[in-house]
Amino acid sequence: MQLRTDLAVEAREIAGEHISGTEFKTYSENGLEISRLTVKNQKAKQALGKDIGTYITIELPSLTDNFSETDERLVTIGEEIRRLLPVNGLVLVAGLGNTEITPDSLGPKTSSRILATRHITGEIARATGLDKLRPVAVMQTGVTGQTGIETGEYIMSVVKRIKPNAVVAIDALASRRLERLGCTLQISDTGISPGAGVGNHRTKINKDTIGVPVIAIGVPTVVDVQTLANDLIGDEFDVQTMEQISPHGRQMVVIPREIDLLTERASRLIAFALNGALQNEFDLPDLVSLM
Fold first, then answer.
1. In this structure, are residues 103 and 221 in contact, taking their beta carbons and an 8 Å threshold?
2. How far is it, in rounded angstroms, from Cα 190 to Cα 12?
3. pLDDT mean across residues, the chain
4. Hey, which residues does 139 pair with through a beta bridge?
5. Which candidate, 208, 215, 174, places its Cα nearest to that of 192?
6. How many other C-beta atoms lie within 10 A of the C-beta of residue 286?
7. Where are the alpha helices (DSSP H) in the chain?
8. CA–CA separation, 197 vs 199, rounded Å?
9. Across residues 36-48, what is the average pLDDT?
């Protein structure tokens, strides 16, 4: 049985920690445990099931614990995001997901807090001291069931029109383990495949498909039931057990009881960190005042 996870560190756990063609290192900063996994070649890609590129995983305190907008940890997370972004130019931030389904609402909740600046230009910008703002455009894609448009198609059409230097895609993720829900942030430069974590594969959104680098940011909000059962009891399921965990063949997921609080705080954390990463000419408190 395939274990479903969007997290590269978990893919490494499943495949084995000594895979050729990868580089893995861990470090601590401002109380955060950070790991960086680099997938370097096709052999490593096949072994891990992860595209070639860099995956940064940040272990967080539970997001049921609150944080302030001026928390130094936000600066640290912003610096990790900034390392993957182009130095200059327009960035398009896309919030993926469905606002009507709480575990899938991370993307749109986050994008609603991103400081859109592409329209702030000319004399108004100079007179207000905002001429140093990096141009940023923001969109919420919805989901195909709402719009009839593939998320990748939607983003591609906007990219062709406004020609950003990069896209930042924010989406909820699936984890292998319950203890990672709301406690792990993943940042990668490999793009994203919407719905992959819960078996609903859509068109990949990456540099190959839309023509510009795609930075993906997400927090796991669900665990696939079959994956969880495999971790707890092994993969030797009899027919009765399979029917119990996947009644009538339905793909079930587990979410934490406090999912509303987790998605709300995760969206704030990502938004504040990303605003800081994009607008490095401004201190975080100043950015908060503009939001």
1. yes
2. 16
3. 86
4. 94
5. 215
6. 11
7. 8-15, 42-48, 72-82, 106-111, 122-127, 144-147, 151-162, 207-210, 225-233, 239-245, 259-278, 284-290
8. 6
9. 94
